[in-house]
Amino acid sequence: MKGLAGKTALITGASSGIGQAIAIRLAQEGCNIVINYRKGAEEAKETERLAMQKAPRSEDGSGVKTLLIQGDVSKEEDILNMVNKTIEMFGSLDILVNNAGIQKECPSHEVTAQAFDQVLSVNLRGAFLCARELIKHCLDRDRPGIIINVSSVHEIIPRPLYASYTISKGGMENLTKTLALEYAARGIRVNAIAPGATITPINQDWIDNPEKKAVVESHIPLARAGTVEEVAAGVAFLASDEAAYITGQTLFIDGGLTLYADFREAWS
Ligand code: NAD
User: Fold this and answer.
1) Which of 200, 217, 219 to mutate to test the pocket of ligand 1 (most atoms within 8 A of CB)?
2) What is the atom index within ligand 1 of the atom nearest the CA of 17?
3) Which residues sit with their C-beta closer than 6 Å to ligand 1?
4) Closest residue (by CA) to atom 43 of ligand 1?
5) Residue 148: which domain range?
6) CATH number of the domain enclosing 236
7) From residue 144, how far is each of 33, 36, 90, 204 by CA, in Å?
8) Is 165 noted as a catalytic residue in this protein?
9) Which residues are bridge partners to 66 per DSSP?
10) Residue 248 falls within a domain, yes or no?
11) Catalytic pick from 165, 183, 245, 260?
């Protein structure tokens, strides 16, 4: 896609699922990729291996390069280290994908302050702090930048038992819009993608259970869960120059999940 080759992209939580697919797709588009992982260096290396398989070949060593960085996005010092190391190695950071995310199932009246804070500090505060660092870097060097937040259909659909998760994703919508508006004139575009039910480890409990999977898919107008590659394609588009005039938006990649499938048949 236009404008991606030679750019440097940092993807948080890139050792599995959607983050891994995004890293692979951006490498395929010719981006240098920084693979952040919290734990599981082996899985991060697997992301690197798969990404390099897809990356365009170059004979002279000028092709796609990778950097693996361990770091917890709920820790400010880890974020600073991640961004500094990226700039040290590549000279710039052009694209940030705030993908790292966790969810915890619990009735809202039993959620502890600590559990609530943990979800918010990874999903929302972590995304904000990573965005802040990319923005500082772009402003210091007067260069454009791109931020893509991995939100969720739960940005707009309430989800009982997952209050902290839905609050974090709802907050992400305003994080996206506020930063987009604040920095548009400085050439920084900020968008979000909102996956629906996607086949990744975060959904292992229903993926492995045919009955639960059928229930999940019954709510999806396109009648199936999404793939990580379908989500990554949306990120590549928003990061590319094809989306040069798009900022402050959430792109729902959900098979129509947010169309209220219960209205498929006319109610009378
Ligand atoms: P996943 O569990 O495979 O990926 C989450 C990644 O975040 C993991 O690699 C994990 O190690 C990493 N992570 C967790 N805490 C971290 C921390 N403190 N610091 C750094 N990394 C951390 O699941 P996934 O489905 O690929 O989720 C990726 C994103 O997509 C999440 O933000 C999730 O909310 C969002 N999402 C997923 C779905 C879905 O159906 N799979 C739907 C909507 C949104």
Assistant:
1) 200
2) 26
3) 12-13, 15-19, 36, 38, 72-74, 99-102, 122, 150, 152, 195, 197-198, 200-203
4) 152
5) 8-196+226-263
6) 3.40.50.720
7) 18, 22, 16, 38
8) yes
9) 33
10) yes
11) 165
pLDDT, one tens digit per residue, over 128-150 is 999 999 999 999 999 999 999 99
Number of domains in the chain: 1
Q: Is residue 220 part of a domain?
A: no
Token pair, residue 224, equals 């199936």
pLDDT at 68 over 70: yes
Ligand 1 geometric centre to CA of 119 (Å): 11
The three-state secondary structure class of 219 is coil
- Per the domain annotation, does 208 fall within a domain? no
Ligand 1: distance of its center to the CA of 50 in Å? 19
Amino acid 183 reads Y
Whole-model pTM?
0.97
* C-alpha torsion sign, points 201, 27, 51, 121: negative
Question: How many separate helices (H) and strands (E) can be counted in the chain?
Answer: 9, 7
Q: Quick one: how far is CA 115 from the chain centroid?
A: 22
Q: Is residue 74 part of a domain?
A: yes
| pLDDT per residue as tens digits for the range 197-246 | 999 988 888 999 999 999 999 999 999 999 999 999 999 999 999 999 99
Instruction: Specify the pLDDT at position 261.
Output: 85
What's the pLDDT tens digit per position in 33-47? 999 999 999 999 999
Residue closest by Cα to atom 17 of ligand 1 = 72
